[in-house]
Design goal:
This protein has 444 residues and is an alpha/beta fold. It contains 17 helices and 14 strands. The termini are far apart.
Length: 444
Amino acid sequence: MQAAKVYDVGIIGLGYVGLTLGTVLAETGSTVIGVEKRTEIVDLTNRGIPHFSEAGLTDALHRVTSSGRLVAAAEFDANVSCKAYIITVGTPLSADGTVRLDMIEAATRQVAENMQDGALVILRSTVKIETTSRVVEPILASTGKEFDIAMCPERTLEGRALQELRELPQIIGATEPAASDRAAGLFQRLTSTIVKVSSAEAAEIIKLVDNTYRDVQFAFANEVARVCDAFGVNAHEVISSGRLGYPRTSVALPGLVGGPCLEKDPHILLQSARTKGLTLEITAAGRLVNERQPIETVEFITKEISRRKLGTPLRIRIIGMAFKGVPATDDLRGSMSIKVLEALKTAHPDAEIGIYDPVISSEVLSKSFPDEVVFSRFGDAVSGASVVVISNNHPALGAVSPRTMAEFISPSGFVFDYWNHFSHLPPSELGDSYFAVGHTETAA
């Protein structure tokens, strides 16, 4: 009979949150088992190969898997148990826009079946308010086993996750002091800065508020861009000049707002509020502004195509498909570049649309976008293009000036830049074929 194996930590879900957390915990000396239903990810993890791009993760994961401190499995073995469990599965929105809880419920049932008396269970996924107390805790309690429960939301930035896990304050939300102390003790292996709050609900709200605040900030920047476009003024100039030496203004620059958190978390906050009869007007308005931006901007692109009489074949290139470029990532989840692609295909069904990303491999792009032309080099993507759409803020996408690009794109072609990579340049350097969000007047 095989001897029982007790791990310090069991992590359910080896996505961006679970794999980075498990790796860093293992680096601190904890023994970690990661449970992931996608068998291809289990195989890659046990070989020390991350299934996504993250600074420093390749080397760190190789170290902890080689040493045996981190192992992955498709499910808990009967001879395995853990002192602590951390649920990190995703909470995507369903087709009707409501947050799904089925993955949380399934993960909790896995924990409930495997845990022994006295286990610590931590929910780290971003969830609707009261999920810890109304969904997770009742499933665990139905087993009759003793356990402690806490909510400790993930707040790391993709591209800096390993660094931030060691630097950011960790939020600990638990009603019972014993559970709070135990969760704090676990996360103190990573960082010395622990912030205890009085309940799981407070911790759940903190995560939603943090991301919704950023979403609303960016929405206001996009509102500024809209009014500047209406008056023929450069929004980059307005925002940058207005905050120079003026401590009471910190308006963000406009751009596409998406990703796995910002496209989802404000909706989760809105849905949570509605359970108490509340309507959050500012939160809803921020999402509205950010979600309609692709269609509004594609309307401008379409008018400019018509104004310039760009004929067939119309070659549109979208440069930067990941949801952001700083810090660099290969994550397509919630990417507004995809919304831009969809809007362009609707507006120009006969156009040849090509895509390129400086981080995502052409193989992955081809698999994710089988109907589009995929390029592996920036120069090949823009060469001969009728329209170049720069849709994320990776620094490499701002390395070739509009005047230089104009030499390679088709005659009368133009560049539309969602991230204002070049709006700081004088009009003489921009030419008459560069436009950006909040900068749609033709340069002199």
